[in-house]
Design brief:
7-stranded mixed β-sheet; binds 5-S-methyl-1-O-phosphono-5-thio-D-ribulose; 4-stranded mixed β-sheet; alpha/beta
């Protein structure tokens, strides 16, 4: 595995503060927060080869669709920098995680550029700007003192900076709207309790973690005003792939008449993918479910299903918040419109 730097921060449980860059290019290496180690410690991992970066992506040291886009682009830059074959590196990077379309998008963009590193750095800067824009659009949908439920981590850690679903919440917070956040723990990798709660604590935004199975009862008690989640891929018809459990939340939200918002940059919208039926869903290792900490929690020999994502049909999505504006049903023309494409086709 790549060399680990010593921890540089004791990752305090609470208190406002800036979040460190999720991923950056430093001294000819890709330096990223090792998200497997949060919230216990903030440790950086340096990938000095494409193989090391592919391992970091596969093992979820870096994850989240927009962050994967930047990682993919930096991977191509790393290949060029080390004299590895960029097209071969690109194929290996794309194969690490199939669902988030941003990974392929980032890799292909860097591959097509004259200077892959300059392109990768531009993409990171753009991601930060676009998430701020997305956040401002989304914050207009949140009433004052809104109680928001979110799932997984769609924050700064999942992007180059700022976040998508958390970007909407951050923007509402910065505008003085006083949002409060309910955070699904998000079994089996716990991106909600480990990562989203960590970010919110550092930003000073009030948050409560709940087990995934509690979302329905909290909605039934009238404690959720809206759901805001990120996305790994949005098909042309508005179907949304996101972390497993998102679909269940959308069904619950519909039952309780609660708006269900998806926040994602246009780089997550895949107009070449006609519907959610065409989105590949990553299946991950059974041990992520079977082993909790050091302890086995499923009897040996029992079958385990571990899909990393699910697909929420467009009809359950109240609005899709992007950096270019907010799309509402019917999504096919609305999404094309955000790309400034004619509605047909
Ligand atoms: O398996 P992960 O942690 O990469 O899954 C991440 C998600 O599902 C996020 O919600 C999505 O990528 C949006 S991140 C802005």
């Amino acid at each position: 595995m790549p060399a680990m730097d010593p921890p540089v921060d004791d990752a305090p449980a609470s208190g406002p503060g800036r979040l460190p860059p999720t991923i950056e290019w430093r001294d000819g290496k890709v330096r990223l927060i090792d998200q497997r180690r949060l919230p216990a410690e903030l440790v950086f991992l340096e990938a000095s080869s494409v193989a090391e970066l592919c391992d970091a992506i596969s093992q979820l040291a870096i994850r989240g669709a927009p962050a994967l886009g930047v990682a993919g682009a930096m991977g191509v830059a790393l290949a060029a920098h080390r004299g590895e074959d960029p097209p071969a590196a690109a194929a290996r990077l794309i194969a690490t995680r199939p669902t988030a379309v941003n990974l392929r998008w980032g890799v292909e963009r860097a591959l097509a550029a004259d200077d892959p590193l300059r392109e990768a750095l531009a993409m990171a800067a753009e991601d930060s700007e676009r998430n701020r824009s997305l956040g401002r659009h989304g914050a207009t949908l949140l009433p004052d003192r809104c109680q928001v439920l979110t799932h997984c981590n769609a924050g700064s850690l999942a992007c180059a900076d700022y976040g998508t679903a958390l970007g909407v919440i951050r923007s509402a917070h910065e505008a003085g709207k006083g949002p409060r956040v309910w955070v699904d723990e998000t079994r089996p990798i716990m991106q909600g309790s480990r990562l989203t709660a960590w970010e919110l604590a550092r930003l000073g935004i009030p948050a409560t973690v709940l087990v995934d199975g509690a979302a329905g009862s909290v909605m039934a008690r009238g404690q959720i005003d809206c759901v805001v989640v990120g996305a790994d891929r949005i098909a042309a018809n508005g179907d949304v792939a996101n972390k497993i459990g998102t679909y269940s939340l959308a069904v619950l939200a519909r039952h309780h008449h609660i708006p269900f918002y998806v926040a994602a940059p246009l780089s997550t919208v895949d107009l070449a993918c006609r519907s959610g039926a065409h989105i590949p869903v990553e299946q991950r290792h059974a041990d992520e479910v079977a082993v909790f900490g050091e302890r086995r929690v499923v009897p040996a020999g029992v079958a385990i299903a571990n899909p990393a994502f699910d697909v929420t049909p467009a009809r359950l999505v109240t609005a899709i918040i992007t950096d270019a504006g907010i799309a509402r049903r019917p999504y096919r023309p609305a999404l094309r419109g955000l790309f400034s494409l004619p509605a047909g086709g």
